[in-house]
């Protein structure tokens, strides 16, 4: 049984997303977990997803989202995993298939992963991206700490929060480059911090990379290294850089338009003073 044929419309802080055809239990879960972003009419959708259930081979082994395969070019993208797949065109129309052979919980996480992949491919068309990073806001500005799993993103977010920062995410950040400067957007993506998932847009003041040490400090990072690190923390679409110049342009927009520094920090929030003093 599917949800409403009209589907659910969401406004991800200026990014309109519509989802139709999701099985009723998942439809209700999405409406609940993304409730802060529900929109009566999100307008013309940046991403319009039609969900269908399909008889696919029974997945073997545990759920492995990092094993997703992709085929990307400028006009179309396709992402595949054992639990389903999604195809999306340059106009934002997407068809997402979910396997009928998986349990509801596994199907839910597969749906979210495929939806994020489709959105990640669409965002460079407006100079944006999804970035593996923690994001906090201080004094009306966003600070990003980009890094792989285990690099200290959650620690950074929790420590900054203890000093009054608002946490946007501790893992995956939606960035919009449609206007200058690049902005970090409130979005319903992974975060362990209550209240983190709420709408809003904040100019990105700095792109940070974690270094562990006793004394808080900021050190400038050379431009070539910034670009390499951004690429390394670009989920879903990094392998499409050569096929789709928009991905490269989005990386250049972030790396060339936002100051980048190594942030050395330990187990205390003293680095927050450095961020509050960061030049405007």
What's the topology here?
Blueprint: E1 8-11, E2 16-20, H1 24-33, E3 47-54, E4 69-72, E5 76-81, E6 84-89, E7 93-99, H2 104-122, E8 129-138, E9 141-146, H3 153-162, E10 166-169, E11 172-176, E12 183-185, E13 201-212, E14 217-220, H4 223-232, H5 245-257, E15 260-265, H6 271-276
Parallel strand pairs: 2-3, 3-7, 9-13, 13-15
Antiparallel strand pairs: 1-2, 4-5, 5-6, 6-7, 8-9, 8-10, 8-11, 11-12, 12-13, 14-15
Helix pairs in contact: 4-5
Q: What would your notes on this structure say?
A:
With 280 residues, the protein is α+β, with helices and mostly antiparallel strands. Helices cover 24% and strands 32% of the residues. The chain is built from six helices and 15 strands. It has helices at residues 24-33, 104-122, 153-162, 223-232, 245-257, 271-276, and strands at residues 8-11, 16-20, 47-54, 69-72, 76-81, 84-89, 93-99, 129-138, 141-146, 166-169, 172-176, 183-185, 201-212, 217-220, 260-265. The strands form two sheets. Strands 1-2-3-7-6-5-4 form a seven-stranded mixed beta sheet, covered by helices on one side.
Q: Which descriptors would you attach to this protein?
A:
280 residues, 7-stranded mixed sheet, globular, 5-stranded mixed barrel
Mean pLDDT: 92
SSE topology string: EEHEEEEEHEEHEEEEEHHEH
Share of residues in helices: 10-25%
In terms of quaternary structure, what is this? single chain
Strand segment tally: 15
Question: Structural class, judged by helices and strands?
Answer: alpha+beta
* Biggest sheet architecture: 7 strands, mixed
């Amino acid at each position: 049984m599917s949800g409403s044929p009209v589907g659910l419309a969401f406004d991800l802080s200026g990014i309109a997303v519509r989802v139709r055809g999701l099985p009723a239990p998942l439809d209700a879960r999405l409406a609940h977990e993304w409730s802060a972003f529900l929109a009566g009419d999100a307008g013309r959708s940046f991403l319009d997803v039609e969900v269908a259930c399909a008889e696919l081979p029974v997945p073997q082994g545990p759920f492995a989202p990092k094993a997703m395969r992709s085929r990307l070019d400028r006009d179309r993208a396709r992402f595949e995993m054992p639990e389903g797949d999604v195809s999306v065109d340059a106009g934002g129309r997407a068809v997402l298939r979910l396997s009928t052979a998986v349990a509801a919980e596994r199907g839910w996480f597969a749906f979210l992963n495929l939806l994020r992949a489709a959105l990640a491919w669409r965002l460079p068309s407006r100079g944006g991206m999804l970035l593996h990073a923690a994001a906090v806001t201080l004094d009306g500005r966003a600070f990003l700490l980009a890094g792989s799993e285990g690099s200290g993103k959650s620690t950074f977010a929790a420590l900054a929060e203890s000093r009054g920062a608002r946490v946007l995410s501790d893992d995956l950040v939606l960035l919009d480059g449609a206007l200058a400067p690049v902005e970090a957007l409130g979005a319903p993506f992974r975060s362990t911090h209550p209240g983190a998932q709420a709408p809003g847009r904040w100019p990105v003041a700095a792109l940070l990379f974690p270094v562990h040490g006793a004394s808080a400090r900021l050190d400038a990072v050379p431009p070539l290294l910034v670009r390499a690190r951004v690429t390394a923390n670009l989920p879903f679409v990094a392998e499409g850089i050569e096929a789709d110049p928009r991905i490269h342009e989005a990386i250049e927009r972030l790396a060339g338009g936002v100051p980048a520094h190594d942030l050395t920090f330990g187990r205390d929030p003293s680095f927050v003073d450095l961020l509050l003093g960061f030049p405007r």
